[in-house]
Specification:
With about 375 residues, this protein is mainly α. The chain has 3 domains: about 130 residues, no CATH class; about 190 residues, no CATH class; about 35 residues, no CATH class. Helices cover about 65% and strands about 0% of the residues. Helix 14 runs antiparallel to helix 16 and helix 17 crosses helix 20. It is elongated. The N and C termini lie far apart (about 90 Å).
């Protein structure tokens, strides 16, 4: 019997069994070795065999034969047997989800292998053909927040290296893991970054990402992102539009955790300084501005003001303070701040904004009592 025929037998006699337990471990062991010789190289399979059918997909992933795993799973899903109880099939996917998370936690460099990453995404797509997932009868474990959230976090680490344009980092991982990501980026092909941007926006809007992950990612994002802009070339407008959406939607202060603590450790300064600088880069490159974008660029400073009042300045050194004021002045040059913030603002925010940007007329946004208090602060009284 050929391997293909053996696999067909396994599909119908190990998985589509109406939920009944199939053959004994010994019989399954022999069938699987004949159908999937690559399992012979896995110590855990050689030692224990297969206790349950759902262990097969995780084992195929462990063997590194992603093409075989995808091909077999597609045939398994498309078998459409008379007895349509998906017990063993869904259990197998649950086991695969556990294996994927384990690999991302403890072998994260494998995620940066395009084969592993694309295999996981392909398995999600194939699994959605199962009636129980397509009809929302069962939750697809491959799409649960803990799995996709971890995948996002690994993607972010990979994305961080993409935008750093630092080939010297390649020594940390095999060239095969990275060349499909870094080489196009170095040549100005931003397709992978586009994909990451789309995933970040989609998952942020659907609230499948945890704030703690976004908060960690924000520090990398705001530290590294501006070095990428000079290489955007002819594709600048499209990439910039998506980049600003990610900056002000995903890595925004709305998703920050414990801003007060971050200010005390000076970590929040990356966002306070980076947001106006990023928009200034866009403005000077001819990107069309909007009042929403201006609000997005000023929001980190606004959050810092509401959290620590004028004490937020402790996150900046003296030379940084002058550079920060200069970037804000250039960003808001010729802009009517009353159109950015058409309503009254909190006196605390006005106090900080007026100190940083005295030329913009922020004092008009404060209450009468607030204006008096701000003047007293300015005089040190």
């Amino acid at each position: 019997m050929s391997q293909h025929e053996l696999q067909e037998q396994i599909i119908h006699q190990l998985f589509w069994t109406g939920g009944e337990r199939p053959f004994s471990r010994q019989v399954m062991h022999g069938m699987l070795l004949d159908a999937f010789p690559q399992l012979q190289g896995l110590p855990e399979f050689v030692a224990k065999g297969l206790a349950e059918p759902q262990e097969l997909l995780p084992l195929l992933f462990k063997s590194g034969d992603y093409a075989e795993a995808k091909q077999f799973f597609a045939r398994l899903v498309d078998a459409r047997p008379t007895n349509n109880d998906p017990t063993w099939v869904t259990a197998s996917l649950n086991g695969l989800a556990t294996e994927v998370v384990f690999r991302m936690n403890y072998h994260s460099t494998e995620w940066k292998s395009s084969d592993f990453r694309s295999a996981y995404l392909d398995m999600i797509e194939i699994s959605e053909r199962l009636w129980c997932y397509a009809d929302k009868v069962h939750k697809n474990n491959l799409k649960q927040p803990d799995v996709q959230g971890k995948a996002y976090y690994c993607d972010l680490e990979l994305y961080k290296l993409c935008i750093e344009h630092a080939p010297d980092k390649l020594h940390q991982f095999s060239t095969d893991h990275w060349k499909s990501v870094l080489t196009p980026a170095l040549q100005g092909d931003f397709e992978f970054q586009d994909y990451i941007f789309d995933q970040l926006l989609q998952q942020t809007r659907s609230k499948t990402l945890q704030k703690v992950d976004l908060d960690l990612g924000a520090n990398y994002f705001w530290r590294d992102i501006r070095g990428d802009l000079a290489k955007l070339g002819d594709d600048q407008q499209r990439v910039m539009e998506k980049l600003l959406a990610v900056a002000f939607t995903v890595f925004s202060p709305d998703n920050a955790v414990d801003i007060k603590k971050q200010l005390s450790t000076k970590r929040f300064r990356q966002m306070i300084v980076g947001a106006p600088l990023l928009l200034l880069d866009a403005k000077e490159a001819g990107f069309p501005m909007s009042f929403d974008l201006y609000r997005g660029a000023l929001k980190p400073l606004e959050k810092a003001a509401l959290t620590a009042k004028r004490a937020w300045k402790g996150v900046l050194g003296q030379d940084e303070w002058a550079a920060f004021q200069d970037s804000l002045q250039r960003l808001l040059d010729g802009v009517d701040v009353h159109k950015i913030y058409p309503r009254k603002m909190s006196d605390t925010t006005v106090s900080v904004f007026a100190e940083v940007m005295p030329q913009c007329g922020w004092m008009e946004k404060a209450s009468e009592v607030g204006r008096a208090d701000i003047l007293m602060d300015d005089l040190g009284l």
